[in-house]
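Appendix B, Record 12. Input sequence as logged:
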Amino acid sequence: MQCFYPIPEQFIGEIPNVFNNPFDYSPHRLCIYAKEQLENTLPHASKMGKGKMYGVLIVKNHAGQIGYLAAYSGNDKELSTAIHFVPQVYDITNPSGYFRTEEQKLNKINADIKQLKNSTKAELLKQQLSAKEKTVKLTLTQNKEQIKKNKARREKTRNSTTDEAILQQLIKESQTEKSNFNKLKKELKKELDILKAEIETYNEQVSALKKLRKAKSAEIQQQLFNNYIFINASGEKANATDIFKQKLNTLPPAGTGDCAAPKLLQYAFLHKYQPIVMAEFWWGPSPQKEVRQHGYFYPACKSKCEPVLGFMLQGLRIEQAQTKPLRQIEVLFEDPSLIIINKPSGLLSVPGKADRDSVYLQVKLLFPDAEEPFIVHRLDRDTSGLMIITKTKRAYVNIQKQFLNHDVKKRYVAILDGSVNEDTGIIDLPLRVDLEDRPRQLVCYQYGKAASTKWEVVKRLNNQTRIHFYPLTGRTHQLRVHAAHNKGLNAPIIGDPLYGQKANRLLLHAETIEFIRPNTNKVVSFICPPPF
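Logged structural output:
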């Protein structure tokens, strides 16, 4: 099957001499050309039930021709298009293969579990137990009420007589009544226990099947990822299980090896093609939780692809990240308890794992006599603008309380990639971290934390929208997700590498902030115009 598609010489031009970093790149014009060719064969986005990530890899073949390979993420069968996609690294869709055979066994276990759970006899037993429990409760309640009445009667008789025989008879009656009640409780409990034991038999069968299913699923996953054998640029081979064990000491997550990037490199290495540059892009409707814009380029995913690509790219010269220019904070205001700064885009608020430079460290150097540079609130690395830094613990507690009470008012300015039709509104989309692709955030109504943003359009020009954001909550990436998500404004902030398209910088800036100054208890406000 032909998967190599030559690129006409007039479109080639200068060839990169190093391979791009799949996790941090700007699409090369050869990838843009290949994407355009592929797009011509793909279904229209409006006709797709769900979107898909596609990838293109520019390669040089044995004859020295420059061409491209195409792939898509997922393990479904090849789409019917004029361009053939590279095959799966391991074809789990083969109906007679190991995975499908074992999948049938899992399906049988699932069917048995469902049958037990929906058993007519089991349901009847549950109904009988429920009815019996009500009857037992009513019987015991009635007996307790009768015992209480009898006790009151005996007490009245006891207070009105001194006859020893009558008093002894009352004692005997009380003892007999107590004994009969305890006997009744035991008999009723025995009847309930018989029903519970029959129900427990079903529950034990279900538990045993679930345990078997879990063990079988783990066995299948282990065997499956043993069959995902990757080759790298040096000709070495390793399976997914060993790659993840060596790199992260974990098992591979579901879907490992089925993304576009590893498929493309696998095909290139197997056919002795020289990889030149690659890119991935989204085509079709966005998922409900994630943010994906139709036609946008995206970096490779980290949870599944970072360990695999780390192995596969060994032997290739990879484009090195450019040295970032030194970014210094600008102090706009200072008093004995706090500092107002303008944070530049590209600087972390606090030190990170790989990047120690941060607002915290710079403030610590600039104000060595401060109790501590307390970071009351943060801005994303790529967001610029106003931050409050407190120099004393007392001021920190004061300002933090204002944030918790939503007394601090902030306004951000951003430029969106797209035209927003309405003039103002409020976005309510709960957010949580994407556990498989940190630090990306997801919209999640089940586990997400409430996130609200008020917005108003400032200007529209050339399919771009200048906008003001007023965050009512302070979730991670809140403004970025609310702008880009299709249930938000469906227009990502320009320069957003996670939810939109990479550019020179993220066009998001914290422009104004208003709060009560701790030393004076008066409302103060600061403004810092954006550099865009």
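The chain has ten helices and 19 strands.
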